[in-house]
Amino acid sequence: MNASNSTNSTTPRGTQTPVNTMHSTHSTRAIIISIGNELTGGQTVDTNSAYLAGQLGMLGIETLYHVTVGDDRDATARAITEAAAQAEIVLVTGGLGPTADDLTRYALADAMGGAELVEDAASLAELEAFFHRRQRTMVPANRVQIMFPAGTRPLPNACGTAPGIAACIGNAKVYVMPGVPREMRAMFAQHIAPALPAGQVVIIRRILHTFGTGESDIGTRIADLMARDANPLVGTTVSAGLVSVRVTSHAASTLEAERLATAAIAEITTRLGEFVVGQGDQAMPAAVGALLSHRSQTLAMAESCTGGLIGEMITDVSGSSEYFLGGIISYANAVKRDVLGVGEDILAQNGAVSEPVARAMAIGCRAKFNADWAIAVTGIAGPDGGTPEKPVGLVYTAIAGCDHTEVQRHIFPGDRPTVRRRAALAALNQLRLRLRPRPRRES
Amino acid sequence: MNASNSTNSTTPRGTQTPVNTMHSTHSTRAIIISIGNELTGGQTVDTNSAYLAGQLGMLGIETLYHVTVGDDRDATARAITEAAAQAEIVLVTGGLGPTADDLTRYALADAMGGAELVEDAASLAELEAFFHRRQRTMVPANRVQIMFPAGTRPLPNACGTAPGIAACIGNAKVYVMPGVPREMRAMFAQHIAPALPAGQVVIIRRILHTFGTGESDIGTRIADLMARDANPLVGTTVSAGLVSVRVTSHAASTLEAERLATAAIAEITTRLGEFVVGQGDQAMPAAVGALLSHRSQTLAMAESCTGGLIGEMITDVSGSSEYFLGGIISYANAVKRDVLGVGEDILAQNGAVSEPVARAMAIGCRAKFNADWAIAVTGIAGPDGGTPEKPVGLVYTAIAGCDHTEVQRHIFPGDRPTVRRRAALAALNQLRLRLRPRPRRES
Predict the structure, then answer these.
(1) CA nearest to B350, candidates B340, B338, B342
(2) What is the mean pLDDT of residues B28-36?
(3) Chain B contacts of A315, Cβ < 8 Å?
(4) Which spans in B249-332 are helix H?
(5) I want to staple A336 with a disulfide (CB 3.0 to 4.6 A). Which of A197, A342, A393, B363 is the partner?
(6) Where along chain B do the CATH 3.90.950.20 domains lie?
(7) Does the distance separating the beta carbons of A1 and B70 come in below 8 Å?
(8) Angle A284-295/A416-435 helices, nearest 10 degrees?
(9) What percent of chain A has pLDDT above 90?
(10) Within chain A, which residue ranges are assigned CATH 3.30.70.2860?
(11) Closest listed residue to residue A394, CA positions, set A378, A375, A376, A383
């Protein structure tokens, strides 16, 4: 995607966000910089950049690129300087902590042409209050966190000890935030987003999640919608077992951008049919939850190889207590027998990873919880425990309802986390397809 | 971290990896490029760059920076060109798929000065075999995946349809891989890592996880070890509720680098005492698992607000069936009563989120599973359900053993996923501290 290729307009956005006061002919652009050796060295995955890019997109601000540099004062200063020369907004995360490897404030001062660091009295008072509230002792190391390059403005941190920093370099506004995601998100929402100029082109992003077929098949079904410079721009991504279709529309007004995106989503939904799980935040667990809510039905589950993952996914959705009763993690065979009531003979004859055991787990779980529906999963997640007859990746998923029980056999490729995640998704998808309203036939 | 600041050496590495044939005076350096609008736009978090940086680090190759650009042919070509001018190794992921927004092969051809795309017959045969094995039909769209810039070499994809590409630009080796993590990892391990020149400086990275105190307190306790140009370089990171201490040593030989890292880890472990959970992959769940294994004891759990998360964390560790029996996800109160045996009167008098209920859940769970230890968690993860007396974030964690039951009350700040994760970690930590061997006193 490159919004600067698409039609731009100088019409201000017709939304609640601040009216754009910039008069350039291109949309507002941003660059995101992450700092930390734990990131460049690969010990930690950077989730901040994706979060910030998503937030900027909702404000109509295009992100040109993300860059990640180590805890290195010169490299950080260079990255800030280059970004400030190319974009109107530069968002920086990381390196504001209290320890000796936190160098971002010094690098920012360098990028400003050698600003001095000065202590901010108001920030000191807030920092002391923070420690007092938590009944913790402030160590001297924390004191560096209230030093700011002269000419910058501290940004209060509602969740931690490191204030952020707002600076101007040339035409760019530079905002430095802590690397801890929770602190960064609160600071961005409270002190940065409200101050950002809205883009002159409204960008609306939608995402549609699918399950059950490959990316190339999805791409073939919607090939004509995926042209290089189309508006909306349509793309596909494979992530955590789902193939997602991204729709990005550009227009001079929110109304028009919404109209374009909505029409594309409707067309794609029709073409992809039962593969479509949901939109936006509604990935598999929320989609199943919505179907259960709609029917006022309840769910319980019996998990063996997934070990609680399905429960975790379901309860990650706020409000899931409306339909979710609970579950049994039946890791040991004795639990399958004693808690779920799977017959000793069924276990002995077929082994724990088998069609009859999956079926008995689902039926036993449904009875135990007095639920409308039960899901059961038993399989071999690996890396050990496979045999020629029952290889690693073999998983049985079962659903049981009042007059319906079905079991599916799968062989999932991949490592332990992949097999577990695929198994959880397949089990939820099995229930989703059962609960999904059947399309009415034209008479 | 900036390894080019530290002592370099021309001594080849004393390990099993290929002997270094490069004769430059600096260590081998890499740059990692990720491609995709879903990344720059923030819909997807890039995990590939961290993975690759970690793998490079183990080979003694320093990563200078990561950069993420959109599905834009020119921006991708520019990123490849800039990286090839600065580093000996350029790793690129994404944009090799079968759909119209996959442009990396074209961008690579541009960066090579305008190479033509030619079809590779061997790759076509492999692609057809892939579809045949899976009993799926190859769609014409897949055919673009076997087109390669002239002068490059296809890299087989063991797990998917898109072969990778190996190219040379100036002095840099450029490797392009698919963006799907599973496919990328297999390709890197099989076809790229074995071909990489090993670094002339051996870099060893270790990570020590702590729980129970803040980053500034940890930083204060080991401040003298965190000097800017120390070897090993010591840094701290907060991630998913744990404060981790990273140790990076540089030396001419693996033996010396190991010695430096080991000595630093030993010193840090002594200073941080009971806060130290484990090293490397041994974060909280594996640490608790190792303590249980050592005692030949078993674990079960009763989860309310964590909804299966503790089970998922425990069973994410391969071999956890040795000590983990299973659990009850008691989301609904009826499940706490009927399955765990929490008295109706206890629930009515105290409410589900209370000290007596947490205690009764742990005791009931331990009995139900006939386990040596049980963990129980009940709380209010939010965003709804809080009251002035019982605010969002209030969580009780309990552990029960044969002659010991204890409950802790916590108030966790943060959103729903944060509260749930903190609750799971606090419960596991409570058991860890109980199982941990007491330091022997000198007589």
Answers:
(1) B342
(2) 95
(3) 305-309, 329, 331, 420
(4) 254-272, 284-295, 309-315
(5) A342
(6) 284-435
(7) yes
(8) 30
(9) 67
(10) 202-279
(11) A378
Torsion of CA A135, A141, A145, A147, to 10 degrees: 130
| DSSP of B27-69 | --EEEEEEE-HHHHTTSS---HHHHHHHHHHHTT-EEEEEEEE
Cβ pair B286, B360 in contact under 8 A = no
Q: How far apart (Å, rounded) are the C-alpha atoms in residues A272 and A264?
A: 12
Whole-model pTM: value is: 0.73
Dihedral through CA B236, CA B239, CA B241, CA B245, nearest 10? Answer: -20
Using CA atoms, how far residue A153 sits from A171, A183, A383, A427, B246, in Å, is 16, 17, 52, 51, 31
Query: Please, is A23 exposed, middle or buried when counting C-beta atoms within 10 Å of its C-beta (0-12, 13-18, 19+)?
Result: exposed
Domain A29-195 belongs to what architecture?
Answer: 3-Layer(aba) Sandwich (3.40)
Contact B46 A50 (CB under 8 A): yes
3 state DSSP class of B110: helix
Please state, in angstroms and as integers, the Cα–Cα distance from residue A330 to each residue in A196, A391, B262, B369, B395, following that order.
51, 20, 40, 10, 25
What is A202-279's CATH number?
A: 3.30.70.2860
Say if the Cβ atoms of A309 and B308 lie within 8 Å: yes
Query: Is the CB of A217 less than 8 angstroms away from the CB of B100?
Result: no
What mean pLDDT is predicted for residues B388-396?
94
User: For residue A413, which residues of chain B lie inside 8 Å, CB to CB?
Assistant: 159, 182
Within chain A, all domains assigned CATH 3.40.980.10 are found at 29-195
> Starting from the edge strand earliest in sequence, which strands make up the sheet with B276-279, in order?
B233-239, B242-251, B202-210, B276-279
The answer as to CATH 3.30.420.40 being correct for domain A284-435 is no
Shortest CA distance from B327: residue in chain A = A329
Q: Considering only the beta carbons, identify the residue of A41, A321, A415 that sits closest to B54.
A: A41
How far is the C-alpha of B175 from the C-alpha of A405, rounded, in Å?
49
- Residue B59 makes CB contacts below 8 A (sequence gap 6+) with B17, B193, B196, B198, B199
Residue range A132-144: mean pLDDT, rounded: 77
B57: chain A residues, CB-CB within 8 Å: 41-42
The pair of structure tokens assigned to B332 is: 């609904």
In angstroms, the CA B216 to CA A324 distance is: 40
- What b/e sequence results for A431-443 when a residue is b if at least 16 CB atoms lie within 10 Å of its CB, and e otherwise? bbeebeeeeeeee
Average pLDDT over all residues of chain B = 88
Identify which of A36, A219, A329 has the shortest CB distance to residue B327: A329
- Pick from A60, A53, A24, A51: nearest CA to A198: A60
Q: Could you give the 3-state DSSP secondary structure of residue B357?
A: helix
Written as six digits, the tokens of B149 are 């810039």
Taking residues A335-360, report their average pLDDT.
96
> Cβ-count burial of B394 within 10 angstroms (0-12 exposed, 13-18 middle, 19+ buried)?
buried
> Which has more pLDDT, A313 or B415?
A313
| Displacement of CA A136 from its chain's centroid (Å) | 33
CB–CB of B179/B97 below 8 Å? yes
Give A376's contacts in chain B (Cβ within 8 Å).
Answer: none
Q: Where are the alpha helices (DSSP H) in A316-370?
A: 333-338, 344-350, 355-369
Q: Is A140 exposed, middle or buried (0-12, 13-18, 19+ CB in 10 A)?
A: exposed
Q: Are residues B223 and A308, on separate chains, in Cβ contact within 8 Å? A: no
- Cα(A231)–Cα(A209) distance, integer angstroms: 20
Q: Do B42 and A64 touch (CB under 8 A)?
A: no
A42 CB-contact burial (10 Å; exposed 0-12 / middle 13-18 / buried 19+):
buried
Tokens 């045999």 locate to: A387
CB atoms within 10 A of CB B251: 23
Whether the bond between A383 and the residue before it is cis, its omega within 30 degrees of 0, is: yes
| A101 contacts on B by Cβ (under 8 Å) | 226, 228, 233-236
Q: Are the C-beta atoms of A310 and A375 separated by less than 8 Å?
A: yes
